[in-house]
């Protein structure tokens, strides 16, 4: 389950922008990895976390993708966020951490490792997106 | 320090206060059954994502996330049994569907 938590200052990102960012992140993640759309979670958190910048992207993905894919994914996500919100580069940073897929169950199924997705898993993801 | 803990995140308005106590007890009972931990040593926290702040698939989300942190070294068979029992009980108590729930059991 890709989980993208956007830490933002209170009342700094209106709903319209949050919705656009969520759609953009979903498009980018699915375009880069082939994952079903329904598995992409995006949350905006106005928590008083202390990061190195006022805006921070804290992503969590399944482990097992290449460094190239991970770097491109993070770059694309951060670019979309900046473009939609107008936040300056120096005010925004991010990371993507990873964990074993088998530690998570979604839709009643243990997540497959990247590259080991089955037709059944894709079908379930499509059904969840439509339901 | 607790060897097992849960952090449950729900969308605002999805699960009322009256059900949270039942969910916490269920998580503690499953932990005792599967991992042998005393229910008193299993902290469970709940937090809400405000409406308009949580999305799934680019649309407003109705999904709950149950993040378990467990003592390492269990087999995958035990981990899956643990997560499946949590799924079943959470759906039973909350009334959510299987597609509205994500459960993880990560090594502490």
Describe the SSE topology.
The complex is a heterodimer of chains A (131) and B (108).
Chain A: E1 3-7, H1 15-33, E2 41-45, E3 55-62, H2 67-85, E4 92-99, E5 104-106, E6 109-110, H3 119-130
Parallel strand pairs in A: 1-2, 3-4
Antiparallel strand pairs in A: 1-3, 5-6
Chain B: E1 5-11, H1 17-35, E2 44-49, E3 54-56, E4 59-60, E5 64-70, H2 76-94, E6 101-107
Parallel strand pairs in B: 1-2, 5-6
Antiparallel strand pairs in B: 1-5, 3-4
Short characterization:
By secondary structure, chain A is an alpha/beta fold. Chain A has helices spanning 15-33, 67-85, 119-130, and strands at 3-7, 41-45, 55-62, 92-99, 104-106, 109-110. Chain A has one domain: Macrophage Migration Inhibitory Factor, CATH 3.30.429.10.
Under the CATH scheme, which architecture of chain B would be assigned? 2-Layer Sandwich
* Structure annotation, total helices of chain B: 2
Q: What's the level 1 CATH class of chain B?
A: Alpha Beta
The main pleated sheet of chain A reads as:
4 strands, mixed
> How many domains of chain B, as an integer?
1
* Major sheet: arrangement of strands of chain B: 2-1-5-6
Mean pLDDT of chain B: 95
Helix percentage of chain B: 25-40%
Give the name of the CATH superfamily of chain B: Macrophage Migration Inhibitory Factor
């Amino acid at each position: 389950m890709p989980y993208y938590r956007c830490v933002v200052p209170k009342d700094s990102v209106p709903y319209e922008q949050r919705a656009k960012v969520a759609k953009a992140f979903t498009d980018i993640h699915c375009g880069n990895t082939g994952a079903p759309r329904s598995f992409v979670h995006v949350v905006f958190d106005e928590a008083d976390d202390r990061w190195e910048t006022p805006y921070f992207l804290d992503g969590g993905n399944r482990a097992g993708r290449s460094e190239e894919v991970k770097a491109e994914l993070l770059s694309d996500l951060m670019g979309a966020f900046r473009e939609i919100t107008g936040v300056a580069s120096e005010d925004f940073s991010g990371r993507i951490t990873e964990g074993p897929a088998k530690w998570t169950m979604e839709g009643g199924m243990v997540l497959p490792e990247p590259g080991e997705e089955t037709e059944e898993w894709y079908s379930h993801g499509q059904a969840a997106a439509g339901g | 320090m607790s060897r097992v803990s849960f952090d449950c995140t729900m969308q605002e308005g999805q699960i009322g206060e009256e059900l949270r106590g039942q969910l916490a007890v269920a998580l503690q009972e499953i932990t005792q059954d599967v991992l042998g931990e005393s229910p008193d040593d299993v902290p469970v926290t709940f937090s809400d994502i405000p409406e308009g702040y949580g999305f799934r698939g680019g649309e407003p989300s109705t999904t709950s996330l149950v993040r378990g942190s467990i003592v390492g070294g269990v087999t995958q068979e035990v981990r899956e049994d643990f997560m499946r029992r949590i799924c079943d009980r959470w759906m039973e108590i909350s009334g959510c569907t299987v597609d509205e729930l994500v459960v993880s059991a990560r090594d502490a």
